[in-house]
């Protein structure tokens, strides 16, 4: 079982961020569909544009205009604990989508909903990782 557990840890470390984001963005699309209507193809493109634009914006900020690397070098314990807290970022992102559905007219609600949710999720997960780092520092594992 040793090698399997090692590979499982590697899989979790490499996929946990994408998994959380996938859960969040799928739920946000469902939230917009429930609040507005089943989207047609054009609205789905707006949704995609919003989600992708948010990552571009956050990456530009985090890398200072794409001049610095994204690698953090965080220990596995920090990543695992931060990811375990992921529920909070997902829930807050859902509220951002709900607000967009309530306050933004269509078709922009589709783009604003996914953009806002993605930005809130990324900021939320960074806060969760910061909390995890502080907990791990107090435990003396870093």
What structural category do the secondary elements indicate?
A: mainly alpha
**Rg of Cα set:** 17 Å
The whole-number mean of residue pLDDT values reads 86
Point out poorly predicted stretches. Answer: none
Tally of discrete structural domains:
1
β-sheet strand percentage: under 5%
Oligomeric status = single chain
Please work out how many helical segments DSSP would assign: 5
Instruction: Note the run of SSEs as H and E.
Output: HHHHH
The number of E-state strands comes to 0
Largest sheet: none
Overall 3D form: elongated
Distance between the termini: 26 Å
Helix content: over 70%
Structure description:
With 142 residues, the chain is mostly helical. It has one domain. The protein is 81% helix and 0% strand. It contains five helices and no strands. The protein has helices at residues 2-35, 41-62, 76-84, 86-103, 108-139. The longest helix is centred in the first third of the chain and has 34 residues, at 2-35. It is elongated and about 50 Å long.
Keywords:
single chain; 142 residues; mainly alpha; 5 helices; 81% helix
Task: Give a quick summary of the entry.
Helices cover 81% and strands 0% of the residues.
Give the arrangement of secondary structure elements:
Elements: H1 2-35, H2 41-62, H3 76-84, H4 86-103, H5 108-139
Helix pairs in contact: 1-3, 1-4, 1-5, 2-5, 3-5, 4-5
């Amino acid at each position: 079982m040793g090698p399997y557990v090692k590979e499982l840890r590697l899989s979790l470390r490499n996929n946990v961020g994408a998994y959380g984001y996938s859960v969040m963005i799928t739920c946000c699309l469902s939230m917009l569909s429930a609040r507005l209507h089943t989207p047609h193809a054009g609205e789905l493109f707006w949704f995609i544009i919003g989600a992708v634009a948010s990552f571009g914006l956050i990456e530009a900020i985090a890398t200072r205009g794409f001049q610095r690397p994204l690698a953090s070098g965080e220990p596995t314990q920090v990543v695992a604990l931060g990811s375990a807290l992921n529920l909070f970022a997902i829930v807050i992102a859902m509220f951002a989508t709900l607000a967009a559905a309530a306050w933004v007219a269509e078709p922009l609600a589709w783009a604003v909903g996914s953009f806002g949710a993605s930005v809130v999720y990324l900021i939320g997960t960074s806060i969760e990782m910061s909390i995890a780092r502080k907990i791990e520092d107090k435990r003396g594992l870093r």
